[in-house]
Each structure stands twice: as structure tokens, then as C-alpha cells.
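== Item description ==
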Amino acid sequence: MRDKINTEMKQAMRDKDRTRLATIRLINAAIKDRDIAARSEDNHEGVSDAEILTVLAKMVKQRLDSAKIYEEAGRLELAEKEREEIGVIQDFLPKQLSEDESRAAVEKAIADTGASSIRDMGKVMGALKSAYSGQMDFGKVGGIVKELLG
């Protein structure tokens, strides 16, 4: 994952694509922040690819929230800039699951974990996060889990 990000950064430099380059640099900074936070005596390598996907998904969510706020405030040029950054970040994320695919994944996770009530929601969400990190919006999925367990 890191190699792909660095390769894309070099390509953006060659292409003189300022927006893409700036966004990839922001991605690298966020990953380095997470690396520093995760360092310990027995972990010198930094975060895993799964954690990088989590960082990227968080970055997308932050930009979606910012774009919405900018639109409400009438700052359309800033909202558009946020959307451009989202497009660059999503290039590094796996394909997002559709609503139907997400529902099927939730049903499978409920069956796999043996969940029977809303009390088991944590087990189901944990299973989904480990299997589908970066592929689904867990805010929306939480509603599906509640609906199916409730």
C-alpha cells in the first residue's frame, strides 16, 4: 500500500498535478502520524495496510463533512476542492460495497457470529470491520445491523 502511494506521488510530480500531489502528501502525513502513534518497542515498522485503509476512510469522511458544511455556507469553490481530494483518496481505497452487498455482508456476519439480539451488535460490527475495512460506511451499516437484530 505504501509503495503504491509513493509511486502515485512520484507520478503526480511528473504530471505536475498539484491537487493530486497535495492530497497524496496529506495521505502520507496522516499515515506517518498513525505510525508515530503506533510505535512501541516491538513495533518498528508502523501501521498495517488495514490501518492505512482506516486512515483513508476517515480522511474521506472528514472531507465529505467539510464539503457539506462549505455548501451550506455558500462556499462552493471550497466544497469542490474537498470533492477533488475525495476522488484522489478513493483511488487508494477498495471498491465500496453497494447497499445490497452491505446488507448481504451484515446477514453473513450475523450468521457467522451467532448474533441473536442487539446486545451482539459489537461482535457483528467487529467482524464486519475486520473483513470489510475501507469497503463500507460503518455508520450506515450500523443501522442495518440494528434493523436485523432488533
Observations:
- The CA atoms of residues 69 and 129 lie 28 Å apart.
- The chain is about 75% helix and 0% strand.
- The chain has a mean pLDDT of 90.
- The helical segments are 2-15, 18-38, 49-72, 76-90, 99-113, 121-132, 138-149.
